[in-house]
């Protein structure tokens, strides 16, 4: 397998994953039925009942959403951070692998991922079963920063 393919294929795979998942309806991605089967709901409900905040104009709390939807919210938003962080890491890896300096690799990776997040949320805004949110772009941007920080740590450690 060529070096270029090893650097490009995972990046393209993550881009396709984001594209496909953002075209799916909420119902197609709903994992609440799986989460409801896990034991320990009384403990988790007691643990998380004091947590309440607003996200996208909606109150996020166990009382308002129920425990399963509350947990699913954190999983969904955590995936935003993880997947866009992975995208930034893989883009940094590609650029750095082709001898682009660290600053340019970091800057381009961050700007590309933020731009991609904006485009993704705009696409979701026009999808009938989705809602594009600027708050998700903020999460995606945070994920991009984490991905780049991890890449910097990883490559510094490797050298």
UniProtKB/TrEMBL annotation:
One Pfam family in the UniProt entry: VanZ
Keyword check for Nucleotide-binding: no
InterPro entries on file: Phosphotransbutyrylase, VanZ-like
Keyword field contains Transmembrane helix: yes
Transmembrane segments: 49-71, 78-96, 134-155
Coiled-coil regions listed in the entry: none
Domain VanZ-like: 9-154
Superkingdom of the organism of origin: Bacteria
Keyword tags: Membrane, Transmembrane, Transmembrane helix
Listed name of the protein: VanZ-like domain-containing protein
């Amino acid at each position: 397998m060529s070096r270029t393919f090893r650097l490009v294929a995972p990046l393209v795979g993550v881009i396709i994953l984001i594209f496909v998942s953002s075209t799916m309806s909420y119902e197609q991605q709903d994992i609440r039925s799986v989460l409801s089967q896990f034991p320990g709901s009384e403990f988790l409900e007691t643990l998380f009942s004091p947590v309440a905040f607003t996200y996208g104009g909606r109150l996020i709390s166990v009382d308002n959403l129920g425990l399963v939807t509350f947990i699913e919210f954190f999983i969904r938003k955590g995936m935003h951070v993880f997947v866009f962080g992975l995208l930034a890491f893989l883009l940094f890896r590609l650029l750095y692998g082709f001898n682009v300096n660290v600053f340019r690799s970091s800057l381009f990776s961050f700007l590309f991922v933020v731009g991609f997040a904006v485009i993704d949320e705009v696409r979701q805004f026009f999808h009938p079963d989705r809602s594009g949110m600027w708050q998700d772009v903020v999460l995606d941007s945070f994920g991009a920063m984490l991905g780049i920080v991890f890449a910097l740590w990883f490559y510094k450690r490797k050298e």
